[in-house]
Amino acid sequence: xxxxxxxxxxxxxxxxxPYLVWRLGRTDYFAxxxxxxxxxxxxxxxGVLGAMFPDYYKxxxxxxxxQSLNGVAQWAVMMFVWIAGIELDLRKxxxxxxxxxxTAGLALGVPLVFGAAAALALLSYPGWxxxxxxxxxFVLGIGMSCAVTALPILILLMEKLQILRQPIGQRILRYASxxxxxxxxxxxxxxxxxGRVGKQAGFLVVFAVSAAAFRWLMxxxxxxxxxYAGLIWLAACGLGADWCGLHxxxxxxxxxxxxxxxxxxxxxMDWLRHNVLLVVMPxxxxxxGLRTNWQVGGTAVFLVAAVLLVASVAGKLIxxxxxxxxxxxxxxxxxxxxxxxxxxxxIMIIFANVLLDKAIITNETFTALLVMAVASxxxxxxxxxxxxxxxxxxxxxxx
Length: 399
What we know:
The model has no long low-confidence stretch (mean pLDDT 85). The chain has helices spanning 3-25, 33-43, 49-52, 54-60, 63-86, 90-95, 97-122, 135-147, 151-160, 167-191, 197-218, 223-243, 248-257, 266-279, 281-289, 298-327, 333-341, 347-357, 363-398. By secondary structure, it is an all-alpha fold.
């Protein structure tokens, strides 16, 4: 068969298998379609399909096919991160800066410390730290992986729970937006190449000047042209960031972060995000799954994933519990917000992909992080639903 035909077989699997599992299995309560797609990517990777049917795996996921899939996946995830950057709204966070700063700081800081402690323990064992990593990069990378909140998935879950447009939903978005900026700032720090610091500083200076010119241009062109200009800007920023060693994903985020959501119709932005998730992101989930491996041993990988899951969930709940006491929230609010903010799928997977690309973590560590991200996301809705119901009953009785 030709490479094109095998590529289309892979695409057929990518789009049909997770959809059938999601729809026929009725998994939406604990595993939305995006989570099923991630799990399917893992199953189709070398750790499961490759181990069970090595000849079939090598036939479908051969070198040229994987190269084609990776190209689609790279552009898909750049668009997704770019949209996340555009949708950041820091003005509301500034209006409520004390509450937002305390909450976002504890929501990020406590699980980061817990995750970093787990990473320090992993340094004692071979096979977890990447070949090009220093100890501080590995520890900070794992710590931040435990602290990540996936803002786009958070929005999807809050829409499902019907709280996105309610006051508590808007508060949670403020906290997550601040943490999103910190996540990409820490990633840029981890990727800072002190041997090429001049090139990276030069890129940031050029980016600042170009961003000012780009913003001047965007408010003067018709709205229909802003999408094209934005995509050109995305490609240019991704290229510049990757050229200087900061990784194209950092470039994609800052390309969106300097843009204003008000430049675009909100319905069109929602439509674009939805269709990026529908049309091209499943390819990224598969390419992510193809990286999963547990050559260290399945038990070791799942044990590390469990430790990281405990560090992540406990860190969020403790951090938000502390914020609730400091800010005198209603009983149960800290736990509710803590569970929602520990949703990790997508952004943490993107974050971990970058760490793997730069050899800061190994395939085994990446697999453990991926399992942790999927598990934390699957726990969210079942944990939040009864808490939300109790809070709504309390509010109803108080009236």
